[in-house]
Please model this.
Amino acid sequence: MTMNRFLTSLVVKFKAGHRSISTVSQQEWRRRGRMMTSSTEVAEKKKEKEKNQKGDNREVVKASDGTVVSSYWGVSRRNIKREDGSDWPWNCFMPWETYRSDTSIDLSKHHAPKTYLDKFAYRTVKILRFPTDIFFQRRYGCRAMMLETVAAVPGMVGGMLLHLRSLRKFQQSGGWIKALLEEAENERMHLMTMVELVQPKWYERLLVLAVQGVFFNAYFVLYVLSPKLAHRVVGYLEEEAIHSYTEYLKDIRNGKIENVPAPAISIDYWRLPKGATLEDVITVIRADEAHHRDVNHFASDVHYQGKELRKAPAPLGYR
Ligand SMILES: [Fe+2]
Ligand SMILES: [Fe+2]
Model:
């Protein structure tokens, strides 16, 4: 019994000792771990700081041609000049995207609605004109600015849908994707010009939000269901735009609206003379609208002939 008790006490002491050794070593390892973690963190933070400093340094490094390298990735813009040698001030468009609007275009052309769809498109546009006339009256600057927020939508929707179609069907687009996206960009530039002349009020911004939400989705669905009708609607909308800009010009010419100097962006975009005025700007915008009218009525006609747009040459190179 005595021997047994002795042996038992030895085993208990051994276990207790082992436990205390294990506990110490665990605590020690935890402590060392904490030290290692904190030293790793410090090293990582140091590395990150060095990396950021390097990045910062790279951001201010100039490329061999003198242009500032804008980021770590070396993405930079070339030093672009105007024809007269002055610096090109715009990032939103480049000199090779500018053009002289064809102001000799026939402004009076009209597509006479014959089919049921054409009549539907024509009447829809005429009905839409009523609330527009009531809301804006003869405030043509404001009217143009607001309507350009809508006018830039169809080209983008049509171009996007044709782009997706081209991908799905492994087919060329016949240049129509580019033509429609060009139209959207051109309309957006009309807006960028108008916004230099008229500052939208808060409730107008709110109205644009609501109208864009409805119009984008409605036009998307319409283009999927009937591109022939969608292009016809835009053709008639452009006819209305020509009418509105003609009224705008009348008010400028008879002095009701001040013929202020043209915004700088419009002088570069349409290659207007330095002393160009609002009248010159509205004249070139109206010519653009006439071109959009022809393109969209033409696109609708192509569909009426039972062809896909890619089978007809896209009206590229207008600019
Ligand atoms: Fe426009
Ligand atoms: Fe237009």
Notes: Residues 148, 151, 187, 190, 241, 289 surround fe (ii) ion (ligand 1) (CB under 6 Å). Residues 2-60 form the longest helix (59 residues). The chain has eight helices and no strands. The chain has a mean pLDDT of 84.
